[in-house]
Amino acid sequence: MTKVITYGTYDLLHYGHIKLLERAKALGDYLIVGVTADDFDKTRGKINVQQTLMERIEGVRSTGLADEIIIEEYEGQKIDDIKRYGVDIFTVGSDWKGKFDYLNEYCKVVYLDRTQGISSSEIRAEKNELKIGLIGESPAVLEKFVSECNYVNGVEVVGLCTKNTSGLSQAVLDIPLITSDYSHLLERVDAVYVLSHPTKHYEHVKQALLAGKHVLCESPLTLKVSECEALFNLAEEKRLILSEAIKTAYSIAYNRMILLAKSGKIGDVVSVDANCTSLREIDYNDKKKLSLTWNSLTAWGPTAMLPIFQLLGTDYADKRIISRIGNEQYQFDEFTKV
Description:
single chain, 338 residues, alpha/beta, Rossmann fold, five-stranded parallel beta sheet, 13 strands
């Protein structure tokens, strides 16, 4: 008996998936299909899979082509599976050609031609098209966000509102609309990513919500509790998404660390220290640039406090904030300890 194994996410199962499974089945007598686990998909960069693992497994099972269905959960599992199940042929689509040649040491590797014009990525993009605009003056963050959007199906960065284009990379300058008129930007987008100076966050977020746009905003969302509460109330009233852009909070490794600490496996957590540092030169004579530069507490405070609040809670008995102020006019703290 010839055993064949293949792997995939099988999100929104379509004709192309079925044809590939049929070809895989025809290569032998027994077909094993590996469906990728949710966490494993995220580590591979597939962050917008639409269906749950069980829905995707049921989709594969409903085709009647798989003799056995397994779950792929970690890097390197393919070798373990080939050995465990006595696999003779490993097969995947031709878009992976060459990627799995190393498996020839364990079994025969066959790359199958994919059905042209059909892909889950394209289906997801059509179902979830999102035009997003950016507002802010940070060249490094803008470039990073634009670059990362290329890996998310259905997301298109269509505009940037900024008052300073100096230092922007070509990738950012290639955005179709670059303007200093925020209202003009909001007319063109479904959602906006706010990375302007923290003193501008409240007005920029509020204007976007009033225009009916979803908002992703760099932390801190506002500099006052009352303003923060008002914005979330407004978003709820308008039935819009308002979220803070603390990417650390959504990191798989970070979340596993928090879960480990909360599980008690390392003992009772009685103290948490969190440090964040940026090494950079600040020119206090350049008033224009200084007015756009984030100080120590606004740049790193939310990220540093995140694990402390998650592990110890927010019902603290006392707080002290000690800062070294480098510029009184702009209240620019070079160092802060909370």
